[in-house]
Amino acid sequence: MRATTRLPAFFLTLGLALLSREASAFEWELDVDGRLVSSNGQKSAMSGGLGELRFGESKSGVQLGRARLALSQPVGNVLALHLDASYWGDDDKSPVDVTEAYAEYRPYPIDGFRVRVRGGAFYAPISLENRAAGWESPYTLSSSAINNWIAEEVRTIGLETQAEWLGTRLGHSFDLSVVGAVYRWNDPIGGVLASKGFGISDRQTGLFGRVGMPGVAPLRGREPFHEIDGRTGYYGGLELRYLDRLTLRALHYDNRADPTAYDARLNDYAWQMKFDSAGARYESPGGWTLITQWLQGETYVDAPASEREWPFNARFFLISKRFGRHSLSARYDDFSIGFSINDFDLGEQTGHAWTLAYVAELTPNWRVTLEWVRVDSNLKPRSFYLGEAPGAIERGLQLAVRYAIGPGVR
Amino acid sequence: MRPGARKIFGFLTSIALSLRVVGAWADSLSVTVLKIDGKPLDGAVVLVHASGSQRSAAPVRAVMDQLNLAFVPDLLVVPAGSQVTFPNSDTVSHQIYSFSPAKRFQLPLYRGTAYPPVHFDVPGVVTLGCNIHDTMQAYIVVTDAPFFGRTDAKGVWLLADAPRGHYRIEVWHPRLREGDALMRELDLGDGAGGTIEIRLKHALRPAPLSGHPHSWDQY
Predict the structure, then answer these.
(1) C-alpha distances out from residue A54 to A38, A198, A359, Å
(2) A321 touches chain B (CB under 8 A)
(3) Would A314 disulfide with which of A335, B57, B70, B91, CB 3.0-4.6 Å?
(4) How far A25 CA lies from chain B's nearest CA (Å)?
(5) From the list B92, B209, B217, which residue is nearest A285 (CB)?
(6) Nearest-angstrom CA–CA distance, A152 and A155
(7) Of A22, A75, A99, A108, which to mutate for an interface test with B (greatest number of B Cβ within 10 Å)?
């Protein structure tokens, strides 16, 4: 059996296991998020364009933000199964798709030490803003350029181990954790970045989903979650927490791909991806939150007679102030992508973005968000593929109302 | 000494001793705990250890509930030998644990299921956590002291009837810096009462943040 066809069988089994367990501590959550959109943006990737917003001008009006079902089922005392499935209201390969599905082994701590093992498909511990259920940000609707890229084409499909020292349970002020993972099935990683660049959106790619429209260059409906070269990648990271005030994270990622490996069915190479990421989140007793993240790396393919390398980097700063159930947030994103072949209009991007958001978490069930985004981006593929000016200033205003039900709602 | 006089002297001595034991010449004790800036410290635990033959306080049955993904109360002081139940009033499951030397235990709490109480026999501070919800934290202070309590909003704890004797007063708070455990000794019984004022040498650790929605703690 091919590696790529083994995956659906795995998740089908996991899904059935989730549904067949007795209902004792079984938890579920169902969310529906509706949007009122006003945008002057270009067509988004899912509509066949190279816009950096989720909804371009043609999508102004009423839209579905997300319909999401999350299931969680403990198996015995220290093992739990999690499944997160979403429908995004656009023309994806499979309408309902899974963003995360994993089993977590989390034994009780011993003498201040705890080990946690996750197996399946899940997000690597990089984002400091996507901390809420469904990997959403409680501060804004749209993720930063860094975390939107992770949502688009980075997922760990493999095994992750985290070892924690719980100093705060021993009378100290710090907790420390070390994380390491091995994974496969993410070899096309970097292709979206090289074609569309960074964007500001809340769309997450499902494990069986695609980015872009089939047949429409340059994305052609890229499927990020496949194994091509049979090599195992890894990442290693650190997290330091000072009480519940400050969280610091750093992570090194290397998929160890063979950049010459080619899959004819996917018409894609294994992209050799290496990046480093770091971030800090500070929360004050007065309701202030400050978040910054930094990302730097490169992705590389070695097609015949054409070595191509895209170095990239991005950072953002977010400041948020909470007033009880209401919060105001502002974020500044800055990003750039280079390309190793100079006089060829592929890949290069420079840009920055401003995001302003007001969020009202009226009850655990109801959330209302108003968000304004402005992305100023110079993306060379726009002229190469679309014959348009590479530069664009896109603005989007969204009003979102989300309703959540189920025992899993916090 | 004549036999009769010895008898009387022995009788008087025994009265004096028994009065001392049962608490004649009882005295009051006031303990004030101040932060480094001189402001009162609310909720500090005061343990009054007696050096003599006084017995520790009688064991009790106490409750440490789980409500809205938090321990309620966030701190309990119980005499050694006490039993504490963990009823879980939440709709979600919890996995309570402690790896403190005074009591190591693991207790999975599924909703709607009653669990037998946990015995706390060894004096010391027991730090509680939940293996599912890492933001949950609470303390059970187990003590063999005959008298104990917590300071009020003015930083004061008052003991009205302390029998005559030599006492060791210990103050503890969850946010004390490492090594800031505080001890004082004093004698009570001359009727003048005892007053102790303790001022912390270090700033307290910051209080836990409160109020952000639980939905924020998923990743």
Answers:
(1) 11, 12, 19
(2) no
(3) A335
(4) 7
(5) B209
(6) 9
(7) A108
Nearest to A244 among B129, B135, B215 (CB): B135
> How many Å apart are CA B214 and CA B94, to the nearest integer?
14
Taking only the tens place, the pLDDT of each residue in A17-40 is 555 443 457 889 999 999 999 999
Question: Which residues of A are less than 8 Å from B207 in CB distance?
Answer: 285
Which structure tokens are listed for A137?
A: 């940000």
Q: What is the rounded distance in angstroms from the CA atom of residue A176 to the CA atom of residue A164? A: 6
CA distance A321 to A323: 7
Cβ-Cβ contacts under 8 Å, A244 against chain B: 135, 208-209
Chain A residues in contact with B131 (beta carbon < 8 A): 78, 106-109, 114
219 residues of chain B, pLDDT tens digit each = 455 555 555 544 444 443 344 444 678 999 999 999 999 999 999 999 988 777 889 999 999 999 999 999 999 999 999 999 999 998 888 999 999 999 999 999 887 778 899 999 999 999 999 999 999 999 999 999 999 999 999 999 999 888 888 999 999 999 998 666 688 888 887 777 789 999 998 999 998 887 777 778 888
For residue A84 the two structure tokens come to 């997160």
> A283 — contact with chain B (CB < 8 Å)?
yes
pTM, two decimals, is 0.89
DSSP A78: T
